[in-house]
Each structure stands twice: as structure tokens, then as C-alpha cells.
Specification:
The chain is of the alpha/beta class.
Length: 281
Amino acid sequence: MSNAYSVPVLMYHHVVPAHGRISVTTRRFAQQMAGLARAGYTSLTAAQFAGYLAGEPVPRKSVLITFDDGYLDNWVHAHPILKHYGMHAVLFLVTGWIGNGPVRPQAGQDGPLPDTPDHAACSRLIAGGRPDAVMLRWSEVQAMQADGTFEFHSHTHTHIRWDKRHGEDAAAKRASLAQDLADSRQALAERLGTASDHLCWPQGYFDADYVDVAQAAGFRHLYTTDAFGQNRPGNPPRHIYRMSMRNGDLGWFNPRLWWARNALLGPHYLAWRAWKRSRRK
């Protein structure tokens, strides 16, 4: 096996019929997954990706597909598309938002589909105490896991930014985060039989305290929203780069994969993008 030079990690949230904030339409998502399949990409598991960072080889064209939060549209729309194209994704669940109840219809089945609103509407319903209207249920999580389209890891239990909640009180921040992570691990272990060492930061935020608490809680692979680097063998697993996926066609999608994987020009391109971002602040 000729090992991958780097593995792009793709970040999705919503897959919905109509485009909105941090969403990709079902049409575009199907195009992107079809493009990966046609180009011969292997969609890695979290364990394979962890092995790669530790020095184990993976196919030259490898990618890690990730989703954040655990929205209902991941079951209704993303799951059937991933299954159709033989792709596998990693989903970071906010475990406190996941409810109970029977599985709901998904695309491709007869009958009406549940409503899958935009991100703003999802946030309002969650804040209003109605997460079941827009979030996954454990029955759907288990069905997706059984089908092999998704595996599930921690995105904390509450999605709260404890640095904002506690301000300068570092001890309170650390204690609250530790409990949040413990609750998440417990929910995953009880519902799915295991809790891994993979964690995605809510809202992409972390600081030295966050990293220390997460590592003490047993999390070793920490996923960021930092897009300005390549995931390569030997990289520290506490800082995993991810590319935010937009509602782009293959003319947008393929070049970004190329830059993320390119050994010669990729690092320079990503450094230039990081410099551009810094100039806008």
C-alpha cells in the first residue's frame, strides 16, 4: 500500500433539501460523495485515522468524513446518500440533545419525511427545550451504526462553552468541563456499548485548560475547526485539522481536496490562507 501523504478531514453539520447556514443541500452532498467514490477515495474510520496519525499506512486517497452535533437530517438525508455510495462517516454527538423514541422515516422510503429545518430554527428549538424535533434519537443512532454509515463519538453532553459561562474562574471552568465530558462518555457507553478517545470541541473552541481536562478524561484525539494544516503521520492527535464543507459543486470540492493532500504546494497554500484570515481580523 502506498501511504497517503495527508488525510483531509471534512466537516459537515446539516444535509438538507434547501441550502442554509452551515448546511449542504442533498443534491450537492450526493455530488460530493459520488465524486469521492468515482475518484477511488477510501472513507476511513476513526480508528483507521488514529492509526494513520500513529504511523500505520492507509490508502493513498483517503479521507475522513465528519459531522457535528447529530441533527435529524443526518438520518433523514445524509445516511441514505452515504449508504448509496458506500461511504462511512464519523458523527460527534451532543449526547444531552439525543432523545428516545422510534426511528423516523428517511429519504427513499414511502410516506412523508419529517421536517428538517435550517440551523437557526434547530438552535431555537433546542434552546426552547424541544431537541427531539430536530435532533437524532438513540434508535436512529443505533440503526446508522448497524448499517455502517456512521460511527459515533463525543461532542460533549451539553455543547456549552464553559469558558464563557465561568469567565475568569478557571477552576469552575475545568470542573464543569470535566463533568460534561464524563456525562458524554457515560451516555455513549450506556447506549452504544463503548466510548472512544475521540472528541470534537463545541464551536471549535479550546484552550490549554480544555486540552488538559480532555486528556485527563481519556480523550486523546481532539478535533478542531482549524482548516489551515495537513493531517500527517506523526502529527499530535490533540490538534486535528478539519475543512468546513460548503454547498459547492465538484469544481469547488475537488480542488480543496487536492490542496489538502498535495505534498509540495499544499502546505504553502494553507499557510497563505491562514495569513489571509489573520489579515481580516
